[in-house]
Amino acid sequence: TERILFDNDTGIDDALALVYLLSLPQVELVAVASTPGNVSADQVARNNLALLQLCGRTGVPVAVGAAAPLEIPLVTTPETHGPQGIGYAELPPPSGQTARAGAVDLWIDAVRRNPGELTALVTAPLTNFALALRKEPRLPELLKRVVVMGGAFYYQGNTTPTAEWNTHVDPHAAAEVFAAFEGLPEERLPIVCALETTERIELRPGHVARLAREAGCAEPELVLPEDPPGKRSTASVPLIRVLSDALRFYFEFHRHYDQGYLAHVHDVFAAAVAAGTADYRTRSATVHVETGPGLLAGTTVPDFRGLWGRKPNARIVSWNDPPAVFDEVLGSIGALARR
Ligand code: BDR
Ligand code: CA
């Protein structure tokens, strides 16, 4: 069993990652912490609650995190993920469970109660994690494993020419987190899934159709490039309808930026790494995060060769297997939707 503490900023790809984790019998989702990023932390928590409800898993605690990044104002991204962070999807209104305050304390309590047992998965700016580290500096030793989506090590950013979104939103938090791991044994270093591997997880309309088929929906194609923007899914299974409507928005966003009718589902890959279902290779490096204002804010620089004379603080994923990720993820979510 993988016991996972998930910190996210749901977020369309975060949503797919969350549903994927819920679909895995071998994963125990211990708690979900909500970080401001794609949308405000309150909205992230509402999205997480609604998705848990949709998947019949209202018992998982959800907490709201910091209101803003450590030192700079929050910038959200409604153009990428929609005003509510979930594209065109209409989530069920929350019933019963509410989000608690204090995601930072939730992190610390969960880790202290389960020393050496939890995998922390962060697919958002590292704000909550950095704040938790300030209060409990032993977190790197107390966690079993850390998996992070963030950074761009081949200098093709998705937010600025060199910076990735999560590190750009809160570069100070990212710098603090990497610093906390410097010099620890290799197996303790965060596994970092950055753009050069997560942008290879290219979801296409055919994948959504396959998901619908796996879930036993009658509709063969649900998200097609020739459809008018904003068209809603008529899939008979509610979970497929929600994912399809969310992903349509994400496809339209990527097309707008001339990337084609596809969507990079970064966080899904990180979730598969955390769950132990993805094949990948890593290279250890000392990561520097540029915190200053200006053109390079949020840029992540890796020293693979020890040229700075410092110890590694991260294991950067250098290879992954996108077709295998899709086989695994679509099959597993499809089975969940069929249940
Ligand atoms: C990251 O930015 C967010 O918008 C996505 O959810 C993902 O975590 C990719 O740069
Ligand atoms: Ca995210």
From TrEMBL:
This is Nucleoside hydrolase. The keyword Hydrolase applies. Keywords: Glycosidase, Hydrolase. Pfam families: IU_nuc_hydro. GO terms for cellular component: cytosol. The keyword Protease does not apply. GO terms for molecular function: purine nucleosidase activity. Residues 4-326 form the Inosine/uridine-preferring nucleoside hydrolase domain. SUPFAM superfamilies: Nucleoside hydrolase.
